[in-house]
TrEMBL record:
InterPro entries per UniProt: Pirin, Pirin_N_dom, Quercetinase_C, RmlC-like_jellyroll, RmlC_Cupin_sf
Protein name per its UniProtKB record: Pirin family protein
Residues annotated as domain Pirin N-terminal: 15-118
UniProt cross-references to Gene3D superfamilies, sorted A to Z: Jelly Rolls
Domain Quercetin 2,3-dioxygenase C-terminal cupin: 147-240
Protein's organism: Paenibacillus lignilyticus
Protein family (similarity comment): Belongs to the pirin family.
Pfam families given in the database record: Pirin (PF02678), Pirin_C_2 (PF17954)
């Protein structure tokens, strides 16, 4: 089954310095029917103004992944990590027993746009940790590039302490990629830019536009096609238990 969540169904707000859309319950927004998808708890689509950001705040027992789409994001935490990340790099923080951090746009003139994702860890009480890993943006074209995974074996892939993998992909109009899934697992799709056609095993097709998402269960093969009305489609696919 494929359940579509249009972009406009998200909870969106504009604080001036922060423009954000939440795909799941978060902060002051709560919907008891939209609190999780498997271990996935949060997908926030944030744009932060220059020289603004989130002050020091704590987290615990959560896998937090930040994917910068445009601009620069500065991270600092009480573990001693300080890093500025841009497109082509990923920040992963395992909050574990507790960590305090800040997120800030260091630019004087440019916004930063990012996706922040939260997942339950497989095990509570882990030692807190942080890493920044990088990927070649050219490798996104025509395939599914893993950028974070529980099966991380290369430095370019962030290590997640949950049985899951996050992929990014860019498809030219009319090109496609197939994702095969193990029975009993879930898929979360999110279109960052463009339009994506998604066909299930019976060739039933849905169309996802910019910032639309889909939550998919009981499907073992998906055909993903870049729609002809978009020169290129940029999307995220997450394989979840």
């Amino acid at each position: 089954m494929i359940y579509v969540y249009p972009a406009e169904s998200r909870h969106s707000f504009d604080l001036g310095w922060l423009r954000s859309s939440h795909s799941f319950s978060f902060g002051n927004y709560f919907d008891e029917e939209n609190t999780a998808f498997g271990p996935m708890r949060i997908l926030n689509d944030d744009t932060i103004s220059p020289k603004r950001g989130f002050g020091a705040h704590p987290h615990s027992d959560m896998e937090i992944l930040s994917i910068v789409l445009d601009g620069d994001l500065r991270h600092e935490d009480n573990l001693g990590n300080v890093m500025v990340t841009k497109f082509g790099a990923v920040q992963r923080m395992s909050a574990g027993t507790g960590v305090v951090h800040t997120e800030h746009n260091p630019s004087d003139t440019e916004d930063v746009t990012l996706l922040q994702l939260w997942f339950d860890p497989e095990q509570r009480g882990l030692e807190p940790s942080y890493e920044t890993t990088s990927f070649d943006p050219e490798s996104l074209s025509g395939g599914l590039l893993p950028i974070a995974s529980s099966d991380s074996v290369e430095n370019s892939v962030a290590k997640l302490y949950q049985d899951m993998t996050v992929y990014l992909s860019k498809l030219k109009a009319g090109t496609n990629v197939t994702f095969k899934q193990q029975p009993g697992r879930k898929v979360f799709l999110f279109v960052i830019e463009g339009r994506l056609k998604v066909a299930d095993e019976k060739d039933a097709t849905i169309l996802l536009s910019r910032r639309d998402s889909a939550r998919i269960v009981n499907e073992t093969a998906l055909k993903l096609v870049g729609d002809h009305e978009a020169d290129e489609t940029f999307f995220m696919l997450i394989d979840l238990p």
